[in-house]
Design brief:
The structure holds three protein chains of three kinds. By secondary structure, chain A is mainly alpha-helical. Chain A contains 13 helices and no strands. Chain C folds into two domains: 3-28 and 65-259, MetI-like fold (Orthogonal Bundle), CATH 1.10.3720.10; 283-512, 3-Layer(aba) Sandwich (Rossmann fold). The chains are: A mainly alpha, B alpha/beta, C alpha/beta.
């Protein structure tokens, strides 16, 4: 309490940056080791048992797999710093190029679904909390939790399949697959957003319920303010912290969730390419894609932490 | 009967000093009261003596030797919050039995538990109860019985009555006085309440901002305080109307 | 058990049954190749049609249950065991190693599960075993985090410290104290996680990374069905429905266990007041036969009648559970349904409707650390009162707030008003809270244990401030406290509450020496002060406070009272001439 809040900022920044660096290092090292952890001979596995031995050897040479491990690691790090991700085994195209081509489609999907789920979940969660506070509105609560649990049990790709069947196959309202024009975004975004929206609305409600029991809400009511003011001005800001934390986790899981939905809708993003490259054992491409996904997730987490610190200087910066 | 002594004990967490060179002796068979306001380091001193807080300077000695920090400890502690000090999933008897220094056959163990419960004025039938069925005062008495089960030389009582209702507090304080008289235990009795400390302690030490500002026989310290802070505390404990 | 729980357990039972006996019962049917019925639609013979070899899809869905469930359980078990080991490690290993493990888990937890699954799927290769390992390992960080949080919460409890001091070994502490106390939330979470894992598996097989032909689970069936979704939607949706039902079974069961305790029956509707009575004229607060019931039902206040005159200071003393704080909250109009408040009348400053009180009632709460909104600065929280009730502009209201902070002797009020509550000490917050009450012109201040959470020296300042405020504003005070000395210091008149009733009402000066109720006398005698005789044991009140769930018929204090007889136990004494006791004649004053 004695040290002013402002002087804690550099320490917070230092600590947060440190964590980001460590996480990045873990990510990079893990993706480097991935290819070495594969049992057996990865290149042989990728090229198939019929590939001639000298071709396998040539590929190994090219991937640097014949050098000592530390040398490979150093070379890998060196290439990463110069933005070089290697070339795909199957297409021979540079991995960086493939990813750059496909990343925007995935990012659009994830961001749109995130915005949609937040826009739906926060109002729904707040209203449900107000309706069901202190054990009121039993039926509303049952309906809400019931819907929530059911939605939570439906995987997003199945939602995708269901949506395709209902709105594309049966009624032809939206296209079945592909990424052409705004209407092609509707179904994938919906499929991706509904589950997280349910989770988030539930968190918002629980947080609001907890906040509404707090002493300072009693203080606000002792001032005899209107209910709307008590909930909107006094309760909501205090429920935002947890909501944002969960929101950040959701956004990163949305990034990963695109993998499945992209496969349902034949969306030309990273998700469909990572699956085909895993099946085809195209390790350089898998490695690059995992790296890009991971970096995206880490950046989102860092961003959320910074926003949290700005909103609530006490808890975020004071944390050890 | 043993002497617990603190020699220039300091406890620091990072840059934050909680205790700064505290020296204090709990003589054999005596009760020493430790008073001070919240955050002054009272609890930390007790926790340091049983190895729950890291000592960064000085020594804590029991009869001239370091207090053992492994196995059965001859210094036992009773905590403030009666709702956190007993495992909700263990019966009263199990909690007490866990602190017994040696493994006894079932019969002897039950007899020992009954004896300890009787010491704290609880019915032996309570041994089978879970803590959820006990009141706050009863829980504190079980906590005392558990501390006694370890056959301690010294007991540290950390604000053991402050979470209790007044009608229950008296019974626990009487018990503390009985225990000193009958068992001859040495005790460090920590409290923020001067009247309570006056009632149970032979000596009083006043802790302020991690340092002991005054200590001596209870009657002297409370009757003729020499440090400003002690006077300040005493003034706050007197009724408002008698002051002006 | 609520209907949701019953539904969940029933569903889970059905799923387990199908998983256990499905391959036995329908195994043959699922492998019969019917070349006349390739990729057929639903029919009486094949409920959801057949696949490209003419095998009955419904039977295949039922048979696939075993593999799907087993894989999900195996992966959950891997996550759970690894999670517990990693999460509980800090208890077992030293502080430094523990911290390293914790931060490693924190780094891993930041990556979404599916990404980890894909990573491990690459390492372990495509296939059922690889997928189970991948999903299991990927789920471990989340479990480790959960387990760590739970363990940390339990480790802070004093009984762990007591066990350590008693010489109990670390492993034994983990097994005897920590694990049993975190088992319940862990099991609940594991159940729900199993539901999630089931979905992840379906996803993996659907992507072609999980179960490989000729084996099949629900995800694989969905993958096979998706190609024909135009002509034959049920082939994809059927296994999908199976996944959803099984996921629901796990989730609902988990939900039911998580929410099992703490449900109380709601109260019936409030009976209208039997009698309407008029408030006592000239009183700033007049309460007649106040009864407060909480769900349970807990009869917290059982008929309390009293008044507070203009400018008078009245104290309300009692132990925890006596109903004193609930009375204060009822007076302040801060109890909401499902708590039921009834009274023949409850009139504050001439108003029966609390919403129309404006600023004539001020409230000070017990815990100054939690009574300010942490998200807003202190000044605007005070100013809000004047902006809302007195229509002041933001600027004038803020100026008023600064002025009021100065009035409650907060130094540098302009700077302090712009600070957040966490930058205030406890005593300062309590003074600011009193300042908040002074934004208007209070005629009554209700103070609920305003000094209990404060240090003795700070208590004194707050009590003095309350007295000063009363002198300057002429406001009346209703002071609630468990501390007899605080009440005698500040108040003119004292009400003593026991088990939801007022047992005695007397001038504050008479409390120590001239109380007539046995409870009041025992309460005063039980508290040592600086003059207590050191040679005699303290007076104690035998027995336990009443259980508010079971309101006694007679005098509530009778079981603990040395004077009580059968009449006391049968008939509740009314409050007559300031005391509610049948035995006042026997109490020597």
């Amino acid at each position: 309490m004695k040290t002013p809040v402002t002087s804690r900022w550099p320490r917070f920044a230092l600590r947060r940056a440190g964590r980001l660096l460590v996480s990045l290092w873990v990510l990079v090292t893990a993706s480097f080791l991935m290819i070495h952890l594969v049992p057996g001979d990865p290149v042989r596995a990728a090229l198939g048992p019929t590939a001639p031995a000298d071709l396998v050897l040539a590929h190994k040479e090219e991937l640097g797999l014949l050098d000592p491990l530390w040398q490979q690691y150093a070379a890998f790090l060196g290439r990463l710093f110069s933005g070089e991700l290697g070339a795909s085994i199957s297409t021979r195209l540079p991995v960086g190029e493939t990813i750059a081509q496909r990343l925007p489609a995935t990012a659009e999907l994830a961001v749109a679904a995130f915005l949609l789920s937040v826009a739906v979940a926060v109002p729904v969660g707040v209203v449900m909390a107000v309706i069901t506070r202190r054990g009121r509105g039993r039926r509303a609560e049952l309906a809400f939790t019931g819907t929530n649990v059911v939605i939570g049990a439906i995987p997003d790709f199945l939602l995708g399949v269901g949506l395709v069947y209902l709105l594309a196959v049966q009624t032809h309202v939206f296209p079945v697959a592909g990424r052409e024009g705004p209407s092609s975004y509707v179904l994938p975004v919906l499929a991706l957003a509904i589950g997280p929206a349910a989770v988030l609305s539930r968190i918002v409600r629980v947080e609001m319920l907890a906040v509404m029991e707090a002493d300072y809400i009693r203080t606000a009511r002792a001032k005899r303010l209107t209910n709307l003011r008590v909930y909107a001005v006094h309760a909501l800001p205090n429920a935002v912290t947890a909501t944002l934390t969960i929101g950040g986790l959701l956004l990163s899981s949305l990034v990963a969730g695109t993998v499945l939905v992209e496969n349902v809708f034949a969306w030309p993003g990273l998700g469909s390419s990572i699956v085909t490259s895993i099946v085809a054992k195209d390790y350089p491409l898998v490695q690059g894609t995992v790296l890009v996904y991971g970096v995206g997730v880490l950046l989102i987490n860092t961003l959320v932490d910074v926003v949290l610190a700005l909103l609530d200087p006490r808890s975020a910066i004071g944390e050890s | 009967m043993s002497v617990l002594s603190f020699h220039e004990v300091s406890v620091r967490y990072g840059a934050h000093t909680v205790l700064n060179g505290v020296s204090l002796e709990v003589p054999a068979g005596r009760t020493v009261g430790l008073v001070g306001e919240s955050g002054c380091g009272k609890s930390t001193l007790a926790r340091a003596a049983v190895g729950l807080a890291p000592v960064t300077g000085g020594h804590i000695l029991l009869d001239g030797r370091p207090v053992p920090n492994r196995g059965r400890r001859p210094v036992q502690m009773v905590f403030q919050d009666p709702y956190s000090s007993l495992d909700p999933r263990m019966t009263v008897g199990e909690s007490i039995a866990e602190a017994l220094p040696e493994r006894l056959p079932k019969k002897a163990r039950q007899a020992e538990i009954a004896r300890l419960l009787a010491l704290v004025h609880l019915d032996a039938a309570r041994a089978g109860d879970l803590p959820g069925r006990l009141s706050g005062g009863q829980r504190q008495r079980v906590a005392l019985a558990r501390a006694l089960a370890a056959r301690p030389e010294v007991i540290l009582a950390d604000e053991i009555t402050s979470a209790l209702d007044v009608s229950v507090q008296g019974a626990v304080l009487n018990l503390i006085r009985d225990m000193r008289r009958d068992l001859g235990l040495s005790m460090l009795f920590i409290s923020h309440d001067l009247a309570v400390v006056r009632y149970v302690a032979d000596h009083v030490a006043v802790l302020h901002d991690g340092e002991i500002v005054e200590q001596g026989p209870t009657a002297r310290v409370l009757g003729d305080p020499r440090h400003d802070y002690t006077r300040h505390l005493l003034a706050a404990a007197l009724p408002l109307k008698e002051q002006t | 058990m609520r209907p949701v729980g019953v539904a969940g357990l029933g569903l889970l039972g059905a799923v387990v049954f199908v998983a256990a006996f499905g391959p036995v019962l329908w195994g043959d049917q699922a492998t019969v190749v019917d070349t006349g019925n390739l990729l057929a639609g639903p029919s009486a013979q094949h409920w959801i049609g057949t696949d490209n070899l003419g095998r009955d899809l419904f039977a295949r869905v039922l048979v696939a249950a075993r593999l799907s469930i087993l894989l999900a359980l195996a992966a959950t078990a891997i996550s759970l065991v690894l999670g517990i080991v990693l999460g509980a490690a800090p208890v077992l290993v030293g502080r430094r190693t523990g911290r390293f493990i914790t931060s490693a888990v924190n780094v891993l937890v930041a990556f979404p599960g599916l990404l980890l699954v894909l990573f491990f799927a690459v390492v372990f290769g495509v296939g059922a075993r690889g997928a189970a390992l991948a999903v299991g390992l990927a789920g471990a960080p989340a479990f480790a985090r959960l387990c760590h949080t739970l363990v940390a919460a339990v480790s802070e409890r004093d009984y762990i410290a007591a066990a350590r001091i008693a010489g109990v070994s670390r492993i034994r502490i983990l097994l005897r104290h920590v694990l049993p106390n975190i088992a319940e939330p862990l099991v609940v979470n594991a159940t729900m996680a199993a539901g999630g894992v089931l979905l992840t598996f379906a996803g993996l097989s659907f992507l072609g990374l999980g179960v490989q032909a000729p084996d099949y689970d629900w995800g694989k069936l969905m993958q096979d069905g998706l190609n024909g979704i135009y002509v034959h939607p049920l082939a994809a949706l059927g296994p999908g429905i199976a996944v959803v039902l099984a996921g629901l079974a796990f989730n609902l069961t988990g939900e039911a266990f998580a929410a099992a305790p703490g449900r109380v029956r709601p109260l019936g509707p409030a009976r209208g007041p039997s009698v309407r009575t008029a408030p006592v004229p000239g009183a700033v607060l007049s309460v007649d036969d106040l009864r407060v019931t909480m769900p349970g039902p807990v009869h917290a206040v059982r008929g309390v009648t009293f008044t507070v005159g203009e400018g008078e200071a009245v104290g309300l003393v009692g132990e925890s559970g006596s109903g004193k704080s609930v009375t204060a909250l009822a007076v302040a109009g801060l109890l909401e349904p499902p708590v039921r408040v009834e009274a023949n009348h409850l009139v504050v400053a001439g108003e029966e409707d609390h919403r129309r009180l404006g600023t004539s009632l001020a409230v000070v709460f017990q815990d100054p650390m939690t009574s300010f909104n942490p998200a807003h600065r202190v000044g605007p929280q005070l100013a809000e009162v004047s902006r809302f009730h007195q229509g002041m502009s933001r600027r004038t209201a803020f100026a008023r707030a600064v002025d009021r902070l100065r009035a409650v002797r907060i130094r540098e009020p302009e700077r302090r008003a712009r600070q957040y509550p966490f930058e205030f000490s406890g005593g300062m917050r309590q003074r600011a809270m009193i300042g908040m009450g002074l934004m208007g012109n209070p005629r009554l201040i209700v103070a609920d244990e305003p000094t209990t959470a404060l240090d003795v020296t700070v208590q004194r300042q707050v009590l003095e401030l309350l007295a000063e405020v009363r002198r300057e504003t002429g406001a009346a005070l209703l002071l609630i406290s468990h501390d007899v000395s605080v009440v005698t210091d500040v108040c003119d008149r004292v009400l003593v509450m026991y088990a939801g009733r007022v047992v005695e009402e007397l001038p504050a000066g008479d409390l120590r020496a001239r109380a007539r109720h046995p409870y009041t006398r025992a309460l005063v005698a039980a508290v040592p002060d600086l003059e207590t005789d050191l040679d005699r044991p303290l007076a104690v009140i035998p027995g336990l406070p009443v259980d508010p769930m079971s309101a006694p018929a007679g005098c509530a204090f009778a079981p603990r009272c040395p004077l009580a007889d059968d009449h006391c136990r049968a008939v509740a004494p009314p409050l007559l001439a300031g005391v509610a006791c049948h035995k006042t004649a026997e109490v020597r004053v």
